[in-house]
């Protein structure tokens, strides 16, 4: 009827509704956040528009989030910085004090847009309600285009409930996928000339290759050309860790002795020792593949720079390789060196893993975990020794199935990652488990997120490898003795935590399943039970030898502290 027509045309919508509709138009499916004044209505509007809302307990654990003003946004800055450093597309929506109260000392007043510019690719506040859709679209597009990263959209409290006639609002359609660019053909030729001249080539597969979904083309390049490859921590799984060409077990030797390195979506930062001696040969040649022009030449000048999409560029390389049928020989001294070192390291690791001591060491724990984890599970990991040793022993077989502390080395992100992964896995009905392997110190940063898991019945399996400290701790007897020696604030080593802390009981308190694990048999039994339970989360509190450490390194003088 004419009345209904005019009702639709003259319908008023709130700022909260416009934010939700703009996000929905950009195909946002999930919102993670902590609500309060002034963003409660935004979360409610998001749910009304069909976006799934997951309420968290700590802003720093959130990846794509809705936060309150002032302290709430400040807590989220760590997560934004982590996303930006790791090149992950994250959208943060933050409430702020009313515009007409700026500079007056308003509730939780803070220069949020300005602050977020340090930690994001884009930071803005819509100037009016009818601009919300445009700003949200630009934020989403900026988070994905070029090198991905965090973006921030600020919504003042008075805009959340303010209303505007819908006819005045232009809903911006979803931005298209990021454009795909290819490298210059001359650069491809130069790169192949360098690669074909290599005596000791090495491909390094970074998380940029995972983001670029280059696994198919990379498998063809590795297998077709017979090249050894080394994944970065979050490049694991782009090609399976048990692939015969994976030389991760001889990482130090591979980096030190290679004469040509092809960086595929990886950066020469601290994780790769900046590409410099003493970790790399001083005369190594680097072929750099990256979608960010500013990354080219960081820390060392590349012999060839291939700017563009990793997947597209690998396909370009394959096109040229197919023409002349080039292949790196399988019977070279380089392959012999790598295989011998891999075998020697595997023997050393196996000896540690097969020890039958109680309390257990790291290698025993990871040996049994690796035997029981399904090959398609998503592994989330954070900690010091827990993450470092676990990376070498817990294989990834599929791309984009590993999340860890990443480039920024951020602790406290693991449980948030696990919640996000489990939410997606459940809603997509993939049947894949999410396993979160934590050091006891790392778990403490966001441990209360176990309540979030229990509230939403997310069947995450958390394994806390508990050594009573940061890097190392002391046993209960030593702790008691130190307590008798005087004030623990002056006696206890700064790295120590409470011995045998009952993290399992925290999970029990919220209705999940907690297990206290001391022996190999208890570990296997608890993990099998946890993996069979799809109704609730589980936490295995695995008590290990507080003095357990990493195996002796090939080059002990090249430790992290000496970098």
From TrEMBL:
GO terms for biological process: fatty acid alpha-oxidation. Its EC number is 4.1.2.63. Keywords: Fatty acid metabolism, Lipid metabolism, Lyase, Magnesium, Metal-binding, Peroxisome, Phosphoprotein, Thiamine pyrophosphate. GO terms for molecular function: 2-hydroxyacyl-CoA lyase activity; magnesium ion binding; thiamine pyrophosphate binding. Pathway: Lipid metabolism; fatty acid metabolism. GO terms for cellular component: peroxisome. Coiled coil: none annotated. Residues 14-113 form the Thiamine pyrophosphate enzyme N-terminal TPP-binding domain. It catalyses: an (R)-2-hydroxy-long-chain-fatty acyl-CoA = a long-chain fatty aldehyde + formyl-CoA; 2-hydroxyphytanoyl-CoA = 2,6,10,14-tetramethylpentadecanal + formyl-CoA; 2-hydroxyoctadecanoyl-CoA = heptadecanal + formyl-CoA; 2-hydroxy-3-methylhexadecanoyl-CoA = 2-methylpentadecanal + formyl-CoA. InterPro entries: DHS-like_NAD/FAD-binding_dom, HACL1-like, THDP-binding, Thiamin_PyroP_enz_cen_dom, Thiamin_PyroP_enz_TPP-bd_dom, TPP_enzyme_TPP-bd. The keyword Magnesium applies. Homotetramer. Belongs to the TPP enzyme family. This is 2-hydroxyacyl-CoA lyase 1. The gene is HACL1.
